[in-house]
Amino acid sequence: MHNSVFPFKLLELSVRGDERGSLIALEALSAQIPFEIKRVYYIFGTCAGVTRGKHAHHRLEQVLIAVSGSCDILLDNGSARKTIRLDNPAQGLYLSGFLWREMSNFSPACVLMVLASEHYDEKDYVRDYGEFLRLAKK
Ligand code: TYD
Questions:
Q1: How confident is residue 100, by pLDDT bands cut at 50, 70 and 90?
Q2: Is the shortest distance between the CB of 52 and ligand 1 below 6 Å?
Q3: Minimum CA distance residue for ligand 1 atom 23
Q4: Rounded distance, CA 57 to CA 97, Å?
């Protein structure tokens, strides 16, 4: 699903496998990653019971990939919520619009890699849920 109401899409990433194992290659401005990648970060060693995120972005595009382990990504568009479970390194969650997101239920070995379209910019964040709801309903 990808539209302005719930702007996310689950991407199936091509796996190059052979008798040695598997490899996934991601290239910017491709069908897999539809933006120029300016930043990569990854979340790992997450303590049990932790919820991360709890913010929205004004304009950032991201692809989230659980390259190891699993976690849940809650998406909230201001009027509805969806939870996407990421548990497959061949699956990418593309987020491109104004969505509140929370990450939780990290397995102990989870490595959540995030490809982002912009450098880190705190001004792009909305970290207050009340403010997010006000802006989402405009
Ligand atoms: P934070 O926004 O709390 O992470 P999350 O949304 O996953 O809960 O970020 C944690 C710290 O890392 C905070 O001090 C900001 C910093 N940070 C960067 O410096 N660059 C980045 O690209 C990101 C995502 C965070």
A1: very high
A2: yes
A3: 120
A4: 8
Domain assignment present for residue 3? The answer is no
Residue 71 domain-assigned?
A: yes
Ligand 1 near 43 CB (within 6 A): yes
Specify if 63 maps to a domain. Answer: yes
Q: Whose Cα sits closest to atom 6 in ligand 1?
A: 53
Mean pLDDT of 11-32: 95
Give the residue numbers spanning the domain of 75. Answer: 8-14+25-117
Q: Give me 59's structure tokens.
A: 């304009």
Closest among 44, 36, 33, 95 to 66, alpha carbons compared: 44
Per-residue pLDDT at 138: 79
CB 77 within 8 A of CB 126: no
7 or 76, greater pLDDT? 76
Q: Does residue 18 surpass a pLDDT of 70? A: yes
- Using a 6 Å cutoff on CB, does residue 41 contact ligand 1? yes
- How many distinct structural domains can be found in the chain? 1
CA 50 from centre of chain: 17
104: in domain: yes
CATH of the domain at 49: 2.60.120.10
